[in-house]
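Consider this today:
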Amino acid sequence: MSSSFQAPKGVNEYVPPRADLFQAIRQAFAEQARLAGYGYLELAVFEDTTLFKRGVGESTDVVSKEMYTFEDRGGRSLTLRPEFTAGVLRAVLEHNLHKRGGLPVKIWTTGPAFRAEQPQAGRYRQFYQLDLEAIGTEDPQVDAETIAIAWNWYRSLGLTRVRLLLNSLGCKECRPAYRARLQEFLRGLDLDEPTRRRIEINPLRVLDDKRPEVRAQLEGAPLMADHLCADCKAHHDRVRALLSDLGIAWEDTPTLVRGLDYYTRTTYEFDHPLLGAQSGIGGGGRYDGLSEDIGGPELPGIGFGLGLDRTILALEAEGAAFTAPPRCQVFGVAIGDEAERRVFGLVNELRRAGIAADMAFGGKRLKGAMKDADRSGARYAVILGERDIAAGSAQLKDLEGGDQAAVPLDEIVTTLRERLSSR
């Protein structure tokens, strides 16, 4: 009989073996971040609500409609994080990481985030992200570096259909004039009242509206790319040149806005065409004014959030060859009490040698234990009985090929290490 309790609606959970893939792709990203000199940050799951209102922007759907906000026992308004960047920047400032010298501060983190959305394939109320941030420099090389890290990770997983969409959203010097012109254009459209209010707060967010009836009216809207100041244009051209030098293909996408208010200059998204409506699998950009927005010093930054859930969907859609390391390489089968004691010790010796090993528990007979060995996915079984102990050896069986041979007990670990390393 199963429990009557179920996970809340919209919570995406992973169980083995799919969870093994989840863990493996996260570890693959950790290696890419390490290679680029990014340190790991374990971040708070909930924050002061005002951090997201000021950082993400009150005009965004995230803040106005999707946050999980609650009052704690002390009467404080707290919010489960809907994204990572504001919290990462808060942590950098709180712990004075920016004062230790050697800017930029290079940080990555991972974990669940939460948004009260309508659950559907690729969109969940509890979802998982990989987040990477470089804080403290305006250098376009850092923009290109963050993109390259994500791109290299996707390639390491075997994804070949990922597209990089690229845009620039300008800066505080050139955006005001463009903002005024965009507002003038948008005020002439047939839009509902909430969208009209958004025009006055952050008109760029209207460009991110996914409703067909709105998108049809946006044909001919002025674009930020045509209104960049000289510095922003030079910055954007440099980023594109650097990406070309790295062999990373990009597509100019002048309507790309992203869903958060803090973006400036470089803005990008990774798209996978096999995922339908929810084709965005990650994205990011520059946020040069965010530190001041949350009460910090002038501290430019850039970073991204990559969706683990959607990356797994992309891997499955492509049929990519990336797989998780085996949970079990060697399975121990014991026949008799003394053999069980010996096999238990051998399994732990194998683990210390870096070999994934397991064994049959519960005193199972040979037939049942061998069924467990087959189900484990192990390549080899080590079978030990009373006669084997007396002979000072164990039976080593290749579970794929079926070959079986006696191996001296004191050579089992060495033999298995050699055979597994040669595969």
